[in-house]
Specification:
Radius of gyration: 17 Å
Distance between the termini: 64 Å
Order of helices and strands: HHH
Number of strands: 0
Number of domains: 1
Number of helices: 3
Strand content: under 5%
Shape: elongated
Largest sheet: none
Length: 91
């Protein structure tokens, strides 16, 4: 079995980080451009989740855990709750 050299592995991780950064940008643009507030909130949470994975790959697992729990977890739940409450009152 062939072992992957350290340099090749680092290049693969760098490429994956760049792809994640591109995904963060696309999710952020979608969150701004989407007409549905529900879809925009989910897209914003997805951008935060991509950022959390990026932090893990860059060697900051504590920041990644905080981003995943607060950024993509709690804030999306609060947004969805607020959307539900405001649409219920509008009807």
């Amino acid at each position: 079995m062939h072992a992957i050299s350290s340099e090749v592995f680092d290049n693969m991780v760098d490429l994956f980080v760049y792809l994640l950064c591109g995904s963060i940008l696309v999710s952020g643009i979608l969150a701004v451009c989407l007409d549905s507030t529900l879809a925009a909130a989910v897209s914003g949470g997805l951008a935060s989740l991509f950022a959390a994975v990026c932090y893990v790959l860059l060697g900051a697992p504590d920041v990644a855990m905080t981003e995943a729990s607060i950024g993509s977890g709690l804030s999306v739940v609060i947004f969805l709750y607020a959307i539900r409450r405001t649409t219920a009152r509008a009807q």
